[in-house]
Amino acid sequence: MSTCVVIGAGISGLATAALLAADGHEVCVVEGREETGGRVGAWSRDGFTFDTGPSWYLMPEVFDHFFAMLGTSAERELDLVPLTPAYRVYPEPHDDTTREGVDVVSGRAEVRALFDEREPGSGERIERYLDSAREAYELAVDRFLYDTYASTQGLRDRDILRRLPRLAGLLTGRLQKHIDRRFKDPLLRRILAYPAVFLGTSPYEAPSLYHLMSHLDLDEGVLYPRGGFREVIRAIETLARDRGVQIHTGDEVSEIILEGRRVTGVRTASGTVHRAETVVSTADLHHTETALLPRSAQSHPARSWRRRTPSPGAALVLLGVRGELPQLAHHTLLFADGWKENFDAIFGPDAHAPDPASIYVCRPSATDPNVAPPEHENLFLLVPVPADPSIGSGGIDGGGDTSLEEIADRAIAQVSEWAGIADLADRIVVRRTIGPGDFERDFHAWRGNALGLAHTLRQSAVFRPRNVSSTVDGLFYAGASVLPGIGLPMCLISAELVLKRLRGDLTAGPLAEPARETR
Predict the structure, then answer these.
(1) In this model, does residue 519 exceed pLDDT 50?
(2) Is residue 383 within 8 Å of 321, Cβ to Cβ?
(3) Rounded CA separation 70/495 (Å)
(4) Domain limits for position 237
(5) CATH number, domain at 249?
(6) What is the percent of the chain where pLDDT is above 90?
(7) pTM for the model
(8) Which of 387, 417, 450 lies at the terminal end of a domain, its last residue?
(9) CA distance 126 to 326
């Protein structure tokens, strides 16, 4: 077994460290910020505790498998609450009538009823759509997501070859077109297309294979870890420390040290050197390649990024609000009429913040009374914007850059109007904004993106950056910039892919789970 240094103490770094330590490696983690968690952050003020990053708990079996790999379970480590409804949707209003959201409840019977109510006769079509989504999802987990692509063994599987004609059509087609051929109601179309945002891309660019995402929210359901998503980090960090992982914070890695083509450790901004036979960088891939390595050792030099597509940026608005907000569910989505125009604004050549935008609102105080003081609510607004740091950085109580604060003001006014909360702005007692400039500064996020590399066809599966350097021996990668992709479950899988690489495991599926601990 080897000595390993992991760069970054986000979920990918902590998960990688825990798995490698459990496999017998000597592991230390080096994190530039004072706290662990990376983009899975939290901020507290005046009795409010806000998640500042991920807020959807999907793909529960991936979490279950990860914890099982460490001899425990998600049930033991987290207090998971099923959400009913999974989320609420508000279409853009066109008159002064009372605003009523549409609740989306997970489960076949409930989903079929919703579709038949809004588009008579569509219930049977959504059943077929979800059958296809489940099949595609199960195929992805069994054959694609846990494959390092160190060989073509998985791609040559007989089952994959048998399904190749259909897979080719799903990969080359576009998600929005796939949906529009089957459903007419605009709101239903957007319910099925919105998950492309979780993949950091537009439904007009995402391969139609990604209709598999609807299996997660409509079939499986949505969970929430009570206490917020920092509880996920707490659990993984504890498991890592219990297995002997040393975690050093507040000292950023400034260089990956090489001897010829071989990695020998890292050097930090303070001058500290951590020697190791293996280095795993879970930092943003662009930063790792262009800032931590010399030009001669870069697998992905600066010029290659001209062909890459980042996920959108995000304007985040954290609000503490006086009084109750029953108009909002735990998760609420506001869908603008200008659906395609929104995505064109974010990804197109004339990039700008859409107005009105399709906005995501999280109200965790609907489920968790500990995230807000009594008789108050906790809100998290996310406005997708272009990946562009010039949009600005945020601040407290309106103290961010003017352009970002204007986006926040519009978002608050939009939620107020569309959800029928006339006095929302007057009831705000805590406010903080976070923008692309913050993502670039705090996480070295390429172009200030919020999620990682977008899941376009050219950045999915075998076409996505691998989790190993092609030029430096002993250098591996994990996180949202590399295989398998964006999101907390993908980051957990990326950690397992490093373990598979070190073991020389060429299988396409998840590793076998060891016996669970009895503690």
Answers:
(1) no
(2) no
(3) 13
(4) 3-46+229-308+453-503
(5) 3.50.50.60
(6) 91
(7) 0.96
(8) 450
(9) 29
